[in-house]
Amino acid sequence: RVEPCWVSDHLCWTGVAGLNSHDLLPLPLDERTLDHVSERVAVVQDALGRPLILENPSCYATFTGSTIPEPEFLQRLCERTGCGLLLDVNNVFVTCFNEESDPLTYLDAIPVEHVVQIHLAGHSHQGTHIVDTHDDFVIDEVWELYRLARQRIGDVSTLMEWDAKIPAFDVVHAEALKAKAVARGEATTAAS
User: Fold this and answer.
1) Under a CB-based contact definition with an 8 Å cutoff, are residues 28 and 59 in contact?
2) What value does the mean pLDDT of the chain take?
3) Which residues have C-beta within 8 Å of that of residue 80, sequence separation ≥ 6?
4) How many Å apart are CA 114 and CA 61, to the nearest integer?
5) What is the pLDDT of residue 189?
6) Between 22 and 103, where is the model more confident?
7) Which of 28, 56, 60, 80 is most buried, by the most CB atoms less than 10 A from its CB?
8) pLDDT tens-place string over residues 130-161
């Protein structure tokens, strides 16, 4: 009815045997999952009449049997199905911290030609792990990932996510204006 530019969802699963986990659970990233997800994306795109846009999720654990790095999995999925990517740079940071991997390496491997939107958000650092809570300011390291992503990707839309512990409008608006300044190259970090 509203004819949206795109419809997005996370690359994840949420339940099994009729039970919903109410969380975005990671997939085993292998050839079998790539085939399975590609088939599902094709069905959804046929029903929608437009490309599906898939977002990289925040991960707190990975499958030991995964054989394809997530950026490569996303690239191959886009090439097979024509879907697009929603790059959440906070999710990149959260996942890489939790998996003890390098977010710059992840970002460098993202197929930028498929990215149609970028998400920014805050998170909760628990010491040993990070939880994607969307309830705080974007940290400097995520701002830097955003700056680098915009350099590589170019001009795509950005969405600032703040879903809990929402402060006054002026605070959220200032964070959104910071995103605009970083995208334009006028600022580089949250302290700018």
Assistant:
1) no
2) 93
3) 34, 38
4) 26
5) 63
6) 103
7) 56
8) 999 999 999 999 999 999 999 999 999 999 99
